[in-house]
Amino acid sequence: MARAKRFTQNPGNTAIAYYRYSSSAQKDTSIDQQRKAAIEYAQKHDLTIIKEYAEPAMSGTRYDRPQLQLMLREVVRLRPAYLILWKTDRLSRDQYDGPIIKNALRAAGVKTVYVAEYIPENDEGSAVIMESLYQAMAAQFAIQHAKNVLRGIEFAQENCLYWGRTIFGYKGKPDSKYEIDEEKAPIVRKIYNDYANGVPMKTIVDSLNSSGIKSVRNKDMTINSVHRILTNTSYIGEYHIGDTSIAGGMPRIIDDELFFQVQKMLKKNKRGGERKKYASDDNNTIVDYWLTDKLVCGYCGDHLHGMSGTSKQGNLYYYYSCNNHRKKKDHCSKKNIRKEKLEAYVLFFLSELIQDSTIRLSIAQKCYEYHENQSEDFESCENALKASIADIDKKLNNIMKAIEQGIFNETTSQRMNELEVQKYSLSEEIERTKLRKASKLKLEDVIRYLDVFALDMNDTSSRAVVLDYLIDKIYVYDDKIVITLFYTDDRRTINYEELDDILANRKVIDEILSGETFDIEQNSNPIADTMLKSLIGDNEDFFALGVR
Is 448 part of a structural domain of the chain? Predict the structure, then answer.
């Protein structure tokens, strides 16, 4: 059997020092304390510290610690003779990683010395035994610590207890169930009622912010924070911890009927709405009024919906009609507009919008900027979570001090478990925040997505995607439409008369390219004349004849 390679220490009296606190029994100043002790040790033993590595609030069970990895890379170049540690567990609390790290240091010619633990220097056999013992104790502490955390989580889960997760509209304290926050619960109810009554989410957000109402992170409300409130099943009594959901574990703020009404509206509005279909004749023919969810009357602000009517000649025609005008409310004068006509205008706009690469790039940039403005401030969120963990660490440190003084009973044990559960939850949230940050939307993602839909807008699926994701509202007047877009404050105005000329001329060009013969004079455009006649009702079958 091959013999282990004999350790050859680097020459000289240079040293490096590694400091870490595990955030479960140390406080923020512990690194300073470790540094002070390391400097004193170096002076006492005539060593020169050439590089220091510090890792605050970093678990000793993790091998991927940045400063640890940096140290392992640099020891080959720096070739120090010594590594100064406070204790064995500063290097690692893992029973497998610890020996690997120490072997890497030994291979680089570095001898590890400890400030606060006695390791015989002149008896290699005893030194190995003592070092292994300290390492085993550190690993055992980590294993027991994890078990305590798990027990705390299971206890909180079984009893539906507050476990440190803050939910808007609720309050909680250790050893107790969540309670309704009587100051914020009415705000939750108002958010749900407003959205159920058709108030846009952006309007709700603006109202909350103008009222000075903050999120659970004490920040301005955003679309994301309101959306989380509108989808949180805690408000209908579900208790959540990890992947477990317990019905009836939370006090109810919202009734089921209102909650699920809001969920249907969220699903509908996510993709621009479930298009309203109407039976249009005695044969129950279904007509798709695909603009319904986007149309707003430019005069009274009410919505336009599809309707049909039969002429004296028995011909069936389809229209978009303002609700108030049809019901003779608010003295709205908006005339009905032919379905084919309005849809032709919008179809033209969508085609021009999405097929122009310059416009697509501009839209992509604005979509991306909008997403950036609405996204979480990951840095602030992570810092807030770390601050909460630091506060818990301080409390745990106080408990540890009490234990060291002999004060240990059921109360201190239970309180420690509660704090560990809270810390575990916060640590998990930090990891989720990091994942969200890593998967952040990029500008090129938006560009590629829009490029997919630079297709023929007569394709219903492509048309629906472009309409749903880019168009906010279409304000309809008797002589024009005004289109507002998502992600930008731009408003596009389309004049009917001007667009009629464009569409008519485009039809002429298409006929020329297709080789059709027709009579056209310099000052006469029969297609345009027919189009104009259709606008005033002289030829109501024009659009049905194939003009798109």
Answer: no
